[in-house]
Amino acid sequence: MSARLRRFGAILAVGVMAVTSLSGCGRLMSQVGALTAVGGDRAAAVGAAADDILIRERVQVMQWPQCSEAKKAVSCTGAALDGVPITVESDGSSPLTMTITVGTRELFRGEVQPILNEAAGQKS
């Protein structure tokens, strides 16, 4: 499955969570939020959460991180507008966690699911 297709799936899941959140379907939203992890598409979940963090932290992105998965580990690489590398690493632990660095600065270290929940308007 291509990275673009995985990213689309993650974005679609977040969109469904947002719609269900607005309609008050909390239980359904929880189930949709869990689909990425259950479906094993860690790369899409990590990529979507990384994008949310980069936007939240106002990183000027030239190339959004592209993620690949090897066994349970996910690795993503991209570049900031000034050419500084953006790296995202996840060892596939449970709960799913990631570390985002821009150049040598650690931007984020923590769980993926709360970031996706926040993007969908759901409290963790």
Key phrases:
4 helices, 5-stranded antiparallel sheet, globular, 5 strands, 45% helix, 124 residues, alpha+beta, 30% strand
Largest sheet: 5 strands, antiparallel
- Sum up the overall morphology in one term: globular
Which strand order does the major sheet show? Answer: 1-2-3-4-5
Total beta strand runs: 5
Count of DSSP H/I helices: 4
Radius of gyration using CA atoms only: 14 Å
Task: Report the mean per-residue pLDDT as an integer.
Answer: 79
Structural class: alpha+beta
Overall tally of domains: 1
Distance between the termini: 29 Å
The sequence of SSEs as H and E is HHHEEEEEH
> What low-confidence regions span 5 or more consecutive residues with pLDDT below 50?
18-39
Helix fraction? Answer: 40-55%
Q: In percent, how much strand structure appears in the residues?
A: 25-35%
Q: Could you explain the architecture of this structure?
A:
With 124 residues, the chain is α+β, with helices and mostly antiparallel strands. The protein has one domain. Helices cover 45% and strands 30% of the residues. It is built from 4 helices and 5 strands. The protein has helices at 3-22, 26-39, 42-56, 113-119; strands at 61-70, 73-80, 85-90, 97-102, 105-111. A 5-stranded antiparallel β-sheet has the order 1-2-3-4-5, covered by helices on one side. β3 (85-90) and β4 form a beta hairpin. α1 packs across α3 (42-56).
Précis, in short:
45% of the residues lie in helices and 30% in strands. By secondary structure, the protein is an alpha+beta fold. It has one domain (3-119).
